Amino acid sequence: MNQKQYTARTIALQALLQMEKSDGYSNIVLNRVLAGCKLSSRDRALVSAIFYGVLERRLTLDYYISHCLQEPDKKLDRTVMEALRCGIYQIIYMNKVPDSAAVNETVNAVKVLGKAKLAGFVNGVLRGFLRKRQQIILPDGNGRRALSIRYSVPQELIELWQQAYGEAITERLLNSLTEQPNLYIRINTLKCDGDQLKKCLLQEGVELMELPEPKGAGILIGCGAPQELEAFRQGLFHVQDLSAQWVCRILDAQPGETVCDCCAAPGGKSFTLAQGVGCSGKVYALDLHKSRVQLLQEGADRLGLAHVEAYVNDAVKGFGLMGQVDRMLCDVPCSGYGVIRRKPEIRYRSIEQAKDLPLLQYAILQRAAEKVKPGGVLVYSTCTLNPAENREIVERFLFENNGFQPIIIDISIKRSVKEPEYMLTMTPFSGASDGFFVAAFRKNQAK
Q: How many Å apart are CA 303 and CA 236, to the nearest integer?
């Protein structure tokens, strides 16, 4: 196919189709598709806007589409369905895109991707939507079906949150999914301070807004791709969500200590902990997958963190010859319901897929606890909002391990969920950013 035919809409549609086929992570799929295309920065931004917008609004878009079909229950060709979502998303949510362009370019994208015979159908449905759009009203009220359609979140996830946190918190969580998260970074305090980084970033047209807490955190303003900045290449900062930085603050690594991040990739927490222990300390950054460990090591090298030791390890099987550590971070694999704003595809995964995760999480926590020195600190964390992976794991651990005592978590984050003080559920509206859970323990001193 002639590369010139691949417009921004075509590439966005192509990326969405790859998501359907691979069940992959959105950022990886999009980066892979964009890597093979020659597009202006403006067109790349358009691809990203359509791609993520359709993922975020899929259930809402499908509701609109169903009202424009003669046979709403009939399964459509995958390319056709994604194309209709793309077209309707542009019409409803992208005010600067003319309706004619949304329709015509979507139809052309269907043709370019080898579905010319179905282009007429796509054209007819989109033009029918233009005529009917004012008559199609989203359901109101607080019923799960209505909330599901309005916020594009499956009813089973809404039910999980309502049972766990109540209806009021659930609606605030749903509202937060419609907000664009900030681009949080961590200043590499071993190379520069906030003022020095600000000066470097301003030379590239990017503003840094430092945060009072946690120390070293900031927000980049006016930044497109942070990895393309010279300050990034020089290792003056790494990208890390605010909630993840708070997890590191709770672990509170001190200069000269030995720390282990037992499920470390992509490495943001390891890098922040390495700043805490300083060059006189050590951070073991472990992960199950060789390719992810390699990326982690490259990140540590870029930041100049020679005291980060990254290697492949299966935490479920233990930690081999690694000695005991002063502090252990057990940030386990999870369902990811707290990071839906950044990875919108997670919301559509069946809760059934997460049912075996607590067994894995608890096994990792148990093995990690063995490597904590007497008097040392153990922190358990996830980036999900699911009691089965959070509170229930922690309660079981304390019940079965009387050699650990809970540590009260006292940081400047408002508690939006009622829970013991040694646990903390972070939400986008509590002074954090992504949804995270964290619990802290101290190992008893040897008698």
A: 7
Beta strands per DSSP E along 108-261: 183-187, 207-210, 217-221, 237-239, 258-261
Rg of the Cα trace of the chain?
24
Per-residue pLDDT reduced to its tens digit, 199-224: 999 999 999 999 999 999 999 999 98
**Would you say residue 25 has pLDDT above 90?**
no
State how far the Cα of 176 lies from the Cα of 429, in Å rounded to an integer.
7
Instruction: Give SS3 for 114.
Output: coil
- The 10 Å CB-count burial string (b at 16+, else e) for 60-88 is bbbbbbeebeeeeeeebeebbbbbbbbbb
Q: CA nearest 389: which of 426, 356, 367?
A: 356
Beta bridge partners of 372: 325
Mean of the per-residue pLDDT values of the chain:
94
For CA atoms 79, 85, 91, 93, the dihedral sign is negative
Q: Which of 86, 192, 260, 383 is catalytic?
A: 383
Report helix, strand and coil shares of the chain as percent, to nearest 5: 50, 15, 35
Tell me whether residue 334 is one of the annotated catalytic residues: no
Q: Output the 3-class SS for 16-65.
A: HHHHHHHCCCHHHHHHHHHHCCCCCHHHHHHHHHHHHHHHHCHHHHHHHH
Strand partners, 58: none
Instruction: Give the integer Cα–Cα distance in Å for 238 and 366.
Output: 30
Instruction: Label the pairing between strands 325-331 and 258-261.
Output: parallel
